[in-house]
Amino acid sequence: MDLMEGVEEIPNAVLADGLTWEWETFPDFLDALERRPRAIDIAAQAAHLPLRVYVMGDRAVRLEDAKPDDIAEMRRLTIEALEAGAFGFTTSRTDSHKTPAGDMVPSRNAAADELLGIGSALGAVGAGAFGMNSDFDDEEYELAWMTQLAKETGRPVWFLLTDRYEDPARWRRLLAAVHAARADGLPLTAQIAGRPIGVMMGIGTALNPFTVRPSYRKLDGLSIAEQRARLRDPEVRRQILAERPSEAEVSKLAQFRQLITKRWDKFFVMGDPPDYEPAPEKSVAAIAAREGRTPDEVAYDYITEADNRYLYFPVVNYVDGDHEPIREMLTDSGTLLGLSDGGAHCTSIVDAGMPSFMLSHWGRDRRRGPRLPLELLVKRQTSETADFFGLHDRGRIAPGLRADVNLIDFDRLRLYQPELVNDMPAGGRRFVQRVDGYEATLVAGTPIFEQGAHTGAMPGHLVRAGHA
After folding, report:
1. How far apart are CA 380 and CA 410, in angstroms?
2. 3-state DSSP assignment of residue 124
3. Among 261, 227, 193, 215, which residue's Cα sits nearest to residue 347?
4. CATH 2.30.29.30 is the classification of domain 2-195+320-341+373-388
5. What is the pTM of this model?
6. Strand order across the beta sheet in which 129-134 lies
7. In terms of Cα–Cα distance, which of 445, 443, 465, 451 is closest to 37?
8. For residue range 292-311, what is the model confidence (pLDDT) as tens digits?
9. What are the boundaries of each domain within the chain?
10. Is residue 52 exposed (0-12), middle (13-18) or buried (19+ Cβ within 10 Å)?
């Protein structure tokens, strides 16, 4: 649970109260998922972090190398997971994933022999995709074992691809490597996002420019309304603005989030409807320069002066200050659209609205550059994803396939600014994002939503790879 709280920002109390913990193995986990009613279909992938800790115990937490017996056991359990219906295996090799204490996750430095050993399970079963989030500390090393894995197993291998402020040319190099591997017949793919990976910052969120200052942390136990009232006290405001960020608190943050102490030019006022491609004049730094105030004064006053005020911080995918690199990735044959967080990072990110954003922004509303054909946007989110992961019974409207359909009034399609609600187990808080324009949503032909309201129908189920 500590890992999930640190990596995915799902509070410990929510996990403890909301999960039944009626499983130990991955097949047990799938069985538990299958027993729960649900509105839509779901699927699962086996994950390296819990697998490594399950097999290696504290040695995994200490980031020790896996021994041959450890690798063999992780391979065996991965085969077991794939045969039970997992759609693949995923691992994390990035400083963006940390524990609440600021430590790296157990898989961060796993050696190539461990990754190849576990990955060989996909070849043995003849199923599944191998996925990774990596910082590519050593690009040649990472690409070497990934291409070797793809060659030896014949299974799809994918990694997350974004542009980054510290290395703007990185995404082009990695995408070139994808095409080089494909030229050799290897199934290597870059998974991309349809917009910047953006953190929302305000009162009650997981992070804002002041959560790393001691006086602000004293308000942690208060409700949002109580925090706002205290923060609007002139003396509290003076004290917080006078403090320097705590270096100890900043060091616990994921690598890109550490920029909250200095990149005021990358913090933007969000607005309603939210602007995910803000112009430079909307940045906190630009507003401060125009008004003759300091950036932290502008940020502080903006988030405290009214309800539901959030700053938008694109942590990656906004190096050039617009969406042009994303457009290039979206139109590249070596990429797969998917990178987003719909149910994690509960109080800093909400990407559940990403499918609606793709249609409305790229297909209709974009003003700061070229748009994309609506047909491409639909294909990117349906048949391409289904084909990649082997979901051959869906992804298209055709005789004999599942009738999973969204009926959308495209002219009315509109995303609202995200809002915080307390509707999770143990009173946990999360962002939700409301949308207009959906006339109906059907799962296997059964209407589950009509005019934005749940019909009460629960036709969804667990989909197991390779199982009819």
Report:
1. 17
2. helix
3. 227
4. no
5. 0.93
6. 46-47, 88-93, 129-134, 157-160, 188-192, 335-337
7. 443
8. 999 999 999 999 999 999 99
9. 2-195+320-341+373-388, 199-316, 405-454
10. buried
